[in-house]
Amino acid sequence: MSAATAGVYVRKKGIRWRRVALHAFLITVSLIWLFPLAWALYTSLRPYADTAAHGYVSFTGVLNFDNYVNAWNNAELIRYFGNTIVIVVPAVILTLFLASMAAFTLARFSWRFNLAMLLLFTAGNLLPPQVIITPLFRMYLAIPLPKTFLTANGLLYDQYIGIILIHVAFQLGFCTFVLANYMKTIPNALTEAAVVDGANTFQIYRSVVMPLVKPALAALAVLEFTWVYNDFFWALLLMRTGSKLPITSALNNLKGQFFVDNNLIAAGAVLVAIPTLIVFFAAQRQFISGLTLGSTKG
Amino acid sequence: MTQQVADSVAPLPPVTQTGGGGATSVSTGKKKRPGLLTRRDLVILAFMAGIPAFIHVFFVWVPTLGSVVLSFTSWNGIGGLDRIKFVGIKNYQDLVNVYPPFWPAIQHNLIWLGVFLLIATPIGIFFAVLLDKELRGSRFYQSALYLPVVLSLAIVGFIAQLFYAPEQGLLNNVLGTTGQNGQTLIDWLGNSNINLWAVLAFASWRHIGYIMILYLAGLKGVDPTLREAAKVDGASEVQTFFRVVFPVMAPINVVILVITIIESLRAFDLVFIINKGLNGLELLSVLVTNNIIGEASRVGFGSAIAVVLLTISLGPILVYLRRSQQGIGE
């Protein structure tokens, strides 16, 4: 008996030691992962004069928000944040609205072209944007539109509507898939009951199915917000007027012009990261579930 | 990837998982045939599916075909479509034979892919396996690793500069290689022998977190009785992972593989932020855009590069379609 307990004891000790090593390893890795942003934060809070006198790798203890005030005021960041809102809000709403309708028809009804449409959406979703940019650029310059509040120059080029539309087109595939898979789990009995009550197809979509997919919509909204907010490429290519750029694309122009030292660059980077950091802290669950809904559910 | 590329982060395509316990969807009865619907319902449905399909096809697939067609033409973008001349495969010949940045770009894309595939993705999977153990503090570790995933690659590029800048950068100040006061200088982003690797360190920082999140979600779906059975049979943890868990995760493994390849091809934002993709940071994606920015753009030539990119992308895309076809074809 004593031999047996001794054996168990040794094994337990071994397991505990391994646990400690594992935690030590994971803590180290976590700190390494957090360090780049922490360094940016630290640099951004230090006055330039201080770092110039003592070097960037020094700990003088002087910390303030001067760099943030300078970055915000000199680079007129508020304008670019405004531009971002003009693009992100309609893009996310339109994407989710259109994707939910497409998903509804794909999930609830068997059409001959269901498979074709899903394959097309998936493949389109995976294409590198640079594959389509050359002809898209030409289309944006060539397609004439009536001059309304949507487009001041009668084109898709250099207009918010053009940026919004390409985001919608590119993100539709992913959202349609996630929502279609989600909708497939809704029992048919629910929609059939509505049919018996005399509801038409659109009413079923609006008052039966949509309320049930709210969790998926919330997750996708968070995810799409982050992606569209973080986009650098489309606006860079399809927007000509510098003052109309969304913040992520504008960042590069501001560097060198207004963000002249590392302290200001750091402050600018942190300021622009704030909305996505809010997502990180406040909507982590939605973000992760949105990301993984697509990969694990079928 | 717009997006994220990346993205943005790149949009993660949906797939089905066969091995997952609660993760597989429940099929609920038979679907309706369109024949059972009223004419009015059919019209409504046609609009509901038709408008999104039209937008997607018009803005994504029409330009894709456009790239293919234009790649056989010569056009500087000035004047109407009647100024387009068909030149056969001349653009491709020029690309391969006389365009200096082409082969470096191919090489850099391959290095990017190699680092992601052989280093970053396996590390992401490794972290996911560690975090799947239900440790105390697991949420903290998970959050720390996934933090860079929410950041745009533009921000990542800015942060990279805080590390790599010649005089003000962290690395050179720590190593004493700022080039000031008789020190030698390491120009992390300017030296074409090392800048790709310097950038890849930060690209991996983000990619590892992304893969970790995806793989961890997959691992949560693995039937726990499989692991218990392996344990009872006396398998070590390493054996259990490679012989039991990894094979069961086959569907997720394909997704991870496809995402890794596609992300390597989409890489753009980071190098563009750092030096517009020049001097050691050439990538196919950057070459495409370089040929359309500016007054006299080379539409045909730029399209030929885009088609090279498309052709390479088609490999993983087709693998992916074949794999998800089984899931969505029911």
- Rg from Cα of chain A: 26 Å
How helix-rich are the residues of chain B, as a percent range? Answer: 55-70%
Query: What is the CA-CA span between the terminal residues of chain B?
Result: 31 Å
Report the C-alpha radius of gyration of chain B, rounded: 24 Å
Strand order of the largest sheet of chain B: 2-3
CATH superfamily of chain B: MetI-like
Tally of domains of chain A: 2
The CATH class designation of chain B is: Mainly Alpha
Shape of chain A: globular
Backbone structural class of chain A? mainly alpha
Number of strands of chain B: 3
Number of domains of chain B: 1
Q: In CATH terms, what is the fold-level topology of the largest domain in chain A?
A: MetI-like fold
For the secondary structure, the number of strands of chain A is 0
By DSSP (H or I, 4+ residues per run), the number of helices of chain B equals: 13
Mean pLDDT of chain A: 87
Instruction: Indicate the CATH topology of chain B.
Output: MetI-like fold
CATH architecture of chain B: Orthogonal Bundle
Give the topology, please:
The complex is a heterodimer of chains A (298) and B (330).
Chain A (H helix, E strand, L loop, with lengths): L1 H43 L3 H7 L11 H9 L2 H32 L5 H13 L3 H13 L17 H24 L4 H9 L4 H12 L1 H17 L2 H6 L8 H8 L7 H21 L1 H13 L2
Chain B lengths: L4 E4 L30 H32 L2 E2 L10 E2 L3 H8 L4 H30 L6 H13 L2 H12 L5 H6 L19 H26 L3 H9 L4 H12 L1 H17 L2 H7 L8 H7 L8 H30 L2
Antiparallel strand pairs in B: 2-3
Helix pairs in contact in B: 1-13, 3-7, 3-10, 4-7, 5-7, 5-11, 7-10, 8-9, 10-13, 12-13
